[in-house]
Each structure stands twice: as C-alpha cells, then as structure tokens.
C-alpha cells in the first residue's frame, strides 16, 4: 500500500492506493489561511501537522488492515512558501504562502540582477521564496538572524514525518535559488538574495527516497514495516505525474483556485520574458513549463459570494450549448497576475456593463475572462516551442461542461475529459512513493487516465471568440495606466 498526501492551500488530502495504483480510500482535513494585511497570505505549519495526524487517524479507523501494509508515502504541496526554522528546528513565524505579494519590491530587485533569470530560468515573481526571505531580512531582521533552515511547505511536513531535512527538484525550482537547467542549488542565486547556502536542505529527485517514517509514527498508526517517504513534488508536477504527463506533446489545463496550462518537456527551454514558469519535473531528466492565471475558480467563487448563488448554480444557468461571446469584458486579476504580465499590483475589472445585464451575463464574462487569460498562457507556452495537440481537463472548474466548451473554443484546442476518478496531485504523490519504495520506472507507473470524451472547438464560434480575445488583450495596458 502507498499513500499520497496533497498539501493544499485549504486542506490536506490523503489517498491510499494499492501496488497497482488502484485507489483504496481517500480522506481529508481542512485548515484556514490568515490574511493579516492586504496582499498577505500566511499559514501556521502546525496546522499541516495536525491535519496529517487527522488524516492518518481517519485512515487507521477506516483502513487499518490495508494501512498496516504501507510501504511508501509521497507528498505534493503548494509551492514557494517559506517555513523558517531556528537552530532547534522550531518554527519562527507563520509560513508566507505562494499567493502572498508583500515582497514585490524585493522580487523586482532580485529580478534586475544580471544573470538571475538566466540561471533560474524564470522571472523572480513576488510569490517565489527568495524574495520572501529578502523581505524578512528587510522587515523582520531579528527573525532572519535566528533563521537556520528554510523549508518549502511539503518539505516541512516530510521533516515532521521523517526527521530529515530535504527538498526536491520540482519544488526547489520555484524558489529562485535553483539552477533549473543543472538541477542543483546555485551559489550565485543564493548569494544574490542574501541567504546562507547552509540554510537550504540537500536535494533529491521527487521519485527517490528522502527518508523513512519515524518509528513512533509506525507504532502509532499500526504499520508493520519500514515506510519510505519519497522526495515528492510541487503540486502541479504531482498533478502531471497523476495524469501521466511527463514529456513533449503532453499537457493539461487546470481550473482550480488558480488556472494553469502545463506542458511536459523533454529538455530545458526557458523563456522568462513571457512570464512562463520553467521548472524541473518530479522525475529525473524531465522539465515542465506552465502559464498561470492567479484567480480562476477564485474569480467564479468571488462572483458567487457577491450575488448569493453557488458557482454550480451560476454555471448551470448558462445551459449546455456555448453561446457567442458577451460584450462584457472581465479582467480576472483579483490577486494580481502572473502570465504574461508579472504584475502583482494590477486588479480586476468589469468593462461594458449595461443596466440590462444580469447575473447570467456576469457569469459568462467571468468564465470568458479566465479563459482568455489562459489563452495568453497557451500563446506564451507555444512561444517556447511547446506543442500540445490536445489538453487534459483538470480541476474543479472543469466539471462545468459549458466552461470546458468555452476553453476548447477559446484555445482552439481539443480538451480531453477523463473518466471520473483520482488522477490529480494526491495520486501523483502516491505514484512517486511507488517509485521511491520499489525502484519502479516512472513511465510504467505514471500512466494516463482513461478519456471519457473529447470536447472539440466549436468551429462556428472560434472566430468570434478569437475576435473577443484580441479585444481582451488591449484592455490590460489601458487599465494599468489608470490604476
């Protein structure tokens, strides 16, 4: 048996699978995020530990026999967070999360240093880890002075499970400290941000062992033998492992809290000037690239809260058949934007509102704005040479048939909808555990899901959506000029 842990922004999920990759059971435990100031987003790592204790208690209660045969654990986690530990490995402050934008000044400073983009393969975004540490040094010098170790979120959870301080390539690639092409920490990048290299843990590949489960936890959870804990993966890399997306020609579109278009790559082909992320994959000698819009289902959830209808009620009201583009333009920049603008300060907007417009029109506009933002990501990815003849649908937003039709038509790319089942980050983490514990080849373990149906672009509406997209692209600079 193997467990995949998915450390999300809003909760921890545990997926128990057998040696053939078949799901046996799934449990989860929620937690909260704090926002003490505008642009701040933090979590207490103790919440992750309590959630981990909770999900394993549930697994013991529901699947005691199966769990006793556990051989491996893999962990997926949200990227870029900064967990600061003192010399006694105690937490110094709450973790600054991926969607925290307070370090925009420090990010711009680091991004302007010659050679930083070239080595890291990426723009230094405010959400990345290195500018967070520079912000702490500038604003909380007493905490920075006491910091002896910096861990990424899922690496802290693995530290609690194993007692070992480790990180792995796919997560480390989002720090601005990793030479992403060489897959190793860069002394040049580390020095640029004012961090001591001794603060950073040793690196392993995501599919390799990174420790063993502590003996007291083996006893507590009734596990018979040793349990290998894998290096694991950043959330999107884990999702790619769960979906069987490892190399060229493969990709997915995800409508989660944020929106992502991800392309598997056989080689290293960065293009930071387009605000495309180029990261190491969780398996050796592979990379992936992605474009990100920060508020995808977040935009729909925001509208839902305003109008007092659930997201499903809003999307169901649109019907089944895709309609022509609405004349309302929506910029989904409720938390700033990544690809292609790299702008943490820009904020969202509705344009073209009329007194006759209804909730239905606003819903159409929100789905359309997010879809257009993802089109910008796809265009940026294709500029790197990535080619994806089709995309796999992932994330909660793809449960809306209407939204998937809109995406296929906006992107002018077929979208494959998999059969219902577990194929996301938790499964990817469990698959990495199989590789780490058994030495199995990643290709044989990380297979693609069965496709239920393929949504093709609506040929009658492709031109109309393309015209609306061209208009959408003109709005950002105009809004930026007056905000």
Walk me through this protein's architecture.
- The active site is at 235 (proton acceptor).
- Pfam families: FGGY_C, FGGY_N.
- Residues 252-437 form the Carbohydrate kinase FGGY C-terminal domain.
- With 483 residues, this protein is an alpha/beta fold.
- The chain has 2 domains: 2-236, ATPase, nucleotide binding domain (Nucleotidyltransferase, domain 5, 2-Layer Sandwich), CATH 3.30.420; 244-422 and 450-483, Nucleotidyltransferase, domain 5 (2-Layer Sandwich).
- It contains 17 helices and 24 strands.
- β10 (178-179) and β11 form a beta hairpin.
- α2 (104-111) crosses α4 (129-139) and α10 (235-242) packs across α15 (425-438).
- The termini are far apart.
- The model has no long low-confidence stretch (mean pLDDT 95).
Which helices and strands, and how do they pair?
Blueprint (H helix, E strand, L loop, with lengths): L1 E6 L3 E7 L5 E8 L11 E2 L1 H23 L4 E6 L5 E3 L9 E2 L7 H8 L4 H5 L8 H11 L1 H6 L2 E3 L1 H10 L3 E3 H4 L5 E2 L4 E2 L1 H6 L9 E3 L4 E4 L2 H6 L7 E3 L2 E2 H8 L8 E5 L3 E7 L11 E4 L6 E7 L3 H11 L3 H6 L12 E3 L17 E3 L7 H24 L8 E4 L6 H11 L3 E4 L6 H14 L3 H4 L5 E5 L6 H21 L1
Parallel strand pairs: 1-5, 5-14, 5-15, 9-12, 16-22, 22-23
Antiparallel strand pairs: 1-2, 2-3, 4-7, 6-8, 10-11, 13-14, 16-17, 17-19, 18-19, 20-21, 23-24
Helix pairs in contact: 1-6, 2-4, 10-15, 11-13, 13-14
């Amino acid at each position: 048996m193997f467990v995949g842990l998915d450390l999300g922004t809003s909760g921890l999920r545990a997926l128990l699978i057998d040696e053939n990759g078949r799901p046996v059971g799934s449990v989860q435990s929620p937690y909260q995020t704090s926002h003490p100031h505008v642009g701040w987003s933090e979590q207490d790592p103790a919440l992750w530990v309590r959630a981990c204790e909770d999900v394993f208690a549930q697994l013991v209660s529901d699947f005691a026999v199966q769990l006793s045969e556990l051989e491996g654990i893999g962990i997926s986690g949200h990227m870029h967070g900064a967990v600061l530990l003192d010399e006694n490995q105690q937490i110094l402050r709450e973790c600054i999360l991926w969607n925290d934008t307070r370090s925009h000044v420090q990010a711009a400073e680091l991004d302007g240093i010659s050679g930083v983009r070239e080595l890291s393969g990426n723009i230094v975004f405010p959400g990345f880890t290195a500018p967070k540490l520079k912000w702490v040094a500038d604003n909380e010098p007493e905490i920075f002075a006491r910091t002896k170790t910096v861990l990424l979120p899922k690496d802290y959870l693995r530290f609690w499970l194993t007692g070992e301080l480790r990180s792995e390539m796919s997560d480390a690639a989002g720090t601005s400290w990793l030479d992403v092409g060489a897959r190793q920490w860069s002394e040049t990048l580390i020095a640029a941000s004012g961090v001591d290299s001794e603060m950073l843990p040793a690196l392993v590949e995501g599919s390799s062992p990174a420790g063993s489960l502590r003996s007291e936890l083996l006893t507590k959870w009734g596990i018979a033998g040793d349990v290998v804990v894998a290096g694991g993966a950043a959330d999107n890399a884990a999702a790619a492992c769960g979906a069987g997306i490892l190399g060229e020609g493969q990709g997915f579109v995800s409508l989660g809290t944020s929106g992502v278009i991800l392309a598997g790559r056989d080689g290293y082909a960065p293009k930071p000037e387009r605000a495309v992320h180029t990261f190491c994959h969780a398996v050796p000698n592979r990379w992936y690239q992605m474009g990100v819009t920060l508020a995808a289902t977040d935009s729909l959830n925001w509208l839902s809260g305003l109008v007092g209808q659930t997201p499903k009620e809003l999307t169901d009201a649109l019907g089944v058949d895709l309609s022509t583009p609405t004349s309302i333009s929506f910029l989904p920049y409720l938390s700033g934007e990544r690809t292609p603008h790299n702008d943490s300060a820009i904020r969202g907007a509705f344009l073209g509102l009329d007194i006759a417009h209804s909730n239905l029109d606003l819903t159409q506009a929100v789905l359309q704005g997010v879809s257009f933002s993802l089109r910008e990501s796809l265009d940026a990815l294709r500029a790197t040479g990535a080619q994806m003849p089709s995309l796999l649908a992932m994330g909660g937003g793809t449960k809306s048939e209407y939204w998937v039709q809109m995406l296929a038509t906006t992107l002018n790319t077929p979208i494959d909808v998999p059969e219902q089942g577990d194929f996301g980050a938790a499964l990817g983490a469990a698959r990495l555990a199989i590789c780490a514990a058994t030495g199995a080849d990643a290709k044989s373990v990380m297979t693609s899901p069965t496709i239920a149906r393929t949504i093709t672009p609506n040929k009658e509406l492709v031109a109309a959506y393309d015209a609306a997209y061209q208009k959408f692209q003109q709005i950002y600079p105009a809004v930026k000029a007056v905000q």
